[in-house]
Design brief:
Layout (H helix, E strand, L loop, with lengths): L7 H18 L4 H8 L3 H8 L7 H11 L29
């Protein structure tokens, strides 16, 4: 059983980390995920940083963009450490 989050802030941060790891597993950029979720990049980035109190509507839109059930975003992330710095450069994709 996963450890329960202690505060609302812990839960918001945990969801942000989980969203980031799911996005990275799909090899999507933040911009690509924001576009799929129908939101502005800055708003999406705030979710990953744990600085946005995500609404249920937004949570469902992000889960849909990730092709997972909304409850999956509440799973404990594999890493509790937030990465710092710019993301790696990606090779151009064909198609």
């Amino acid at each position: 059983m996963a450890r329960a989050n202690k505060t609302a802030e812990d839960l918001i941060a945990s969801i942000g980390l989980r969203v980031a790891e799911l996005r990275e597993a799909l090899d999507l950029t933040q911009q690509e995920l924001a576009d799929l979720a129908g939101m502005q990049l800055k708003d999406y980035q705030r979710i990953e940083l744990g600085k946005r109190n995500i609404t249920l509507v937004t949570l469902v839109r992000v889960a849909d963009a990730l092709n997972v059930a909304p409850a999956c975003l509440f799973d404990v992330p594999a890493s509790r450490v937030r990465r710092v710095g710019r993301p790696r450069k990606r090779a151009n994709r064909a198609g």
